[in-house]
Amino acid sequence: MLRFGGDYNPEQWPEEVWAEDLRLMSEAGVNMATVAVFSWSRLEPEQGAWDFAWLDRILDLLHEHGIDADLATATATPPPWLVRAHPEMMPVTADGVRLEFGSRQGYCPSSPVYRTHAVRLARTLATRYASHPALKMWHIGNEYADHTLECFCEVSAAHFRTWLEARYGTIGGLNAVWGTSCWGQLYTGFDQVEPPRTAPGPVNPAQLLDWRRFCSDALLELFEAEKAALREVTPDIPVTTNFMSILHGLDYWKWAAAEDLVTDDAYPDPADPESHVAIALSYDLMRSLKRQPWLLLESSPSAVSWRAVNAPKPPGMMRLHSLQALAHGSDGVMFFQWRQARFGPEKFHSALLPHGGTATRGWQETLQLGRDLKALAEVAGSYEQAQVALVLDWDSWWGLEAPESMPSDRLKLKELLLDWYRPLHARGIAVDLAPPGRDLTGYRLVIVPNLYLCTEESAKALSAFDGELVVGPFSGVVDAADQVHPGGAPGPLRDLLGVTVEEFWPLHDGVTQATTAGAARTWTEWIHATDAEVVARYRGGELDGRPAITRKGGVTYLSCRLDDPAPFLDTVLARADVHGVEVPRGVEAVRRAGHLFLLNHTTDPQRITLPQAGTDLLTATSRQGEIELAPRDAVVLRLEGRK
Ligand code: GAL
């Protein structure tokens, strides 16, 4: 079964409305609702004064209507009574400002008060609903790192010190790793170490890197603490927390390992005609995190309410974007939220049931999607490894984007990933993401857009891969401590690549550098091909005639960011014998196990020659040869000979 439904906030509505909610949910085919995400102050308006009656009734109603509950632990907004009793649990900014109550996610991730009460609430809910038949999944917290990724208070500082002590053992160990002999920062005790608060100048980048690791870990500790309480009481109910698509702040490889199911919230901007590409990359990451199907837990039926200008989704786009998530491995489509709110910051956020009720095109599209998801049920649970992988590492991302100490602040990891992802996506080639240490067996082509921070272990894993490998610029520069590898880049990748990098040569915005493989932008390097063939050279400028792209065995090194990597990519794809599906620009072709999704993201009809005959599950018709896809329409083919 594919999941269909969304966040349901009945506490914002009088009870008379609930019956209609459930009737309409049934009509639309909703089979899962996320409940109680922000309900702490409603469930426990004063400490220990529980009010479960409403949630009891809602869970009963859901179950009576055959709808499963993704039940939140309700810890996302600690209630006013707790904040007033413990004002120190509110987060503090890098400038020392303590934030006020009045929004949501107001807690210091390291606060023992918040943690104790959150775990108490999670355990209380688990105990109460352990045997409720509607309970099918635990939704821990909500979008960790949303609003509150970090806190610079004294409690956080103490937690950071404990984390550092566990990592380095002695202050001498920390001094060595942080390189505190630079700028006179030698510490003589952990008690002198603070979070990277606003300082007179650039902060030690090793300290910043450890801070990023710590902040991701501190939130994960919270998740783990609630999970432990749930596991004690309901060991068989799967746990998740909703991710925020590809996100700088949290190391999702680590986080996903702690979850039973990966779930994601995705909000591509309807006004951006290319937004389906970046979101596809996120979806592929979600599928790759545990190498299994995932679930789109939040998306938007039409407009959101948090952009400066909130464009609605034109007719057909909600369906198309939903099918896209399925194509990339989601086992359903869920939304924020069920019924459009009348008050609060999200009153203009769209919902499956709009302000205008059932007399709206929005509601008609909700009904249509419900029908489509039923027709597509057979894709649920299917998973297949792709032939191409992009390597992504959070440590390296954090290091690369450290402020104020890099040769250029223009190398942004997400953009570097998209440089490669975009042409792969346009060619209908499925892509996985992989952490650098993962066993890469089975892939034909692995691209490392950038691996600024590269450990010996990562280098070893990449060296063990025997397919086509492409390594992008500014890789192998530093070790896990953000210290430059002896002899400089590419450090532990030197033997694998057969090059040495003498000097980084970043380019100003708008400047390009010609190479025999096309123009480079943002970044070039002065390199030596010590043990590699030169396949492209710089043309003109200071680097004239020097190697730009090298190759050793099946391993290519790019010392620059190509303005258009597509022609180069095509030669690599041919070598790796990887083939996609030929489609017109703006049409997305995605294979999911024995199915082919063809999604027309353009506003024109498009003609496509099917690579294989099959049955379109959406219309239950056989299709072969050339077909026409209407604007924003899709076909989902069960390919012949496959089930
Ligand atoms: C998410 C959040 C939801 C809702 C939604 C609106 O970030 O988890 O509660 O606010 O955004 O787009």
Please specify the SSE layout and strand pairing.
Layout: E1 3-8, H1 15-28, E2 32-35, H2 40-43, H3 53-64, E3 68-72, H4 80-85, H5 112-129, E4 135-139, H6 154-168, H7 171-178, H8 205-233, E5 239-240, E6 242-243, H9 252-257, E7 263-265, H10 275-289, E8 294-298, H11 317-327, E9 330-335, H12 361-375, E10 388-391, H13 394-400, H14 413-426, E11 431-434, E12 445-448, H15 456-464, E13 468-471, H16 494-497, E14 500-506, E15 512-515, E16 520-521, E17 523-528, E18 533-539, E19 547-552, E20 555-558, E21 561-562, H17 566-576, E22 587-592, E23 595-600, E24 606-609, E25 614-616, E26 621-623, E27 626-629, E28 634-639
Parallel strand pairs: 1-2, 1-9, 2-3, 3-4, 4-5, 6-7, 7-8, 8-9, 10-11, 10-12, 12-13, 13-20
Antiparallel strand pairs: 14-17, 15-16, 15-18, 16-21, 18-19, 19-20, 22-23, 23-28, 24-27, 25-26, 25-28
The chain binds beta-D-galactopyranose.
Beta-D-galactopyranose is lined by residues 142-143, 146, 265, 267, 298, 300, 304, 336, 346, 349.
Find the count of extended strands (DSSP E, 2+ residues). 28
Number of domains: 4
Give the overall shape.
globular
Mean pLDDT: 97
Description of the structure:
The chain has 643 residues and is of the alpha/beta class. The protein folds into four domains: 3-153 and 220-379, TIM Barrel; 154-207, no CATH class; 388-576, Class I glutamine amidotransferase (GATase) domain (Rossmann fold); 587-639, Immunoglobulin-like (Sandwich). The chain is 31% helix and 19% strand. The strands form five sheets. A ten-stranded mixed beta sheet has the order 11-10-12-13-20-19-18-15-16-21. β25 and β26 (621-623) form a beta hairpin. α5 (112-129) runs parallel beside α8, α6 (154-168) packs across α7 and α6 packs across α8. The radius of gyration is 26 Å and the shape is globular. It starts with a strand and ends with a strand. The mean pLDDT is 97. Bound molecules: beta-D-galactopyranose.
